[in-house]
Amino acid sequence: MDTQILREAFPPAATWTAQDVPDMTGKVCAVTGGYGGVGYHTTKALLARGAKVYVLARSESKFQSAIQRLAAENPPIVARPHFIPLDLASRTSPLDAARDLASRESRLDVLFCNAGVMVPPSGSLTDEGYDLQWATNVMGHWILTTALIPLLENVYDASGRAQKARVVHTSSSGHRFAPRGAVDWESLKPEGAGPPPKLGNWALYGQSKIGNILVANELDRRHGAKIISTSCNPGNLQTDLPRHLKQSIFIRLVGFIEPLLTYPAHLGALTQLYLGTAPDVAGGAYGIPWARIGDPREDAKDPETARKVWEWLERECRV
What we know:
There is one protein chain. The protein is about 40% helix and about 15% strand. By secondary structure, the chain is of the alpha/beta class. The protein has one domain (about 5-315): Rossmann fold. The strands form two sheets. It has an eight-stranded mixed sheet with strand order 3-2-1-4-5-6-9-10, with helices on both faces. A two-stranded parallel ribbon has the order 7-8. Keywords: NADP, Oxidoreductase. It comes from Naganishia liquefaciens. This is SDR family NAD(P)-dependent oxidoreductase. InterPro entries: NAD(P)-bd_dom_sf (IPR036291), SDR_fam (IPR002347).
């Protein structure tokens, strides 16, 4: 078995914790899917260190529940996050969310591209016919991020070139399920524009997660002068992300071993918090549990594939 997989699946105890997040007073952060799982604990840690946090997500009722949970924590989180509607499976909603944020703020210090979907029912598509996992995990976040580049670059300009904004793309160890060469280009075509995809649901999920790494690296190549862009595997966690898997008979049969192989969600926030706030992080880094730097699959680091993915997104994501 690949030793890197073992390093990520069975990490040592964390030596960098949420208490190590530096003072974020005056910083503006945005967390997609910031009211649940890893996103909730990312939001919580940022608020505790003084950041102004925007949660970009679909459900305002879940956001309100998260606010109540924050207030009930011990110690309670007094600062309140702000809500902006975002549906990553839509090509227009990310632009609307970016415009909303730009109407409220002149800068964005850290963007956590945290939300995602994992192995939904086979054949799940967006209204435009794209694979739901690729559209949500890659396309929606790319549209949002590129629309927010002016706010992100303002951090560098306003600080007299002393600071760079950060963008953290939440990938997964599941990127190792991607097809050989990282991307099956035929599978990216919307329904009806090409042959039916030959990839199964797990391969499509892996493709979307390796897509996160490729986009992170290409963003760093194109905008690294003013933005630090990274990606990470948050870990094998006890969250609602794999909710569709829990409906399968196999998972029900072996579900009793899940607690032995997964970790609490608050640990999953550590790696992306580290990438988003620690002073010693370099652009293009790939974070692994807990708050360490590791290596993704070799083809995830290919600059030519990253360029091709970015150019595909430029063509397909025009609104």
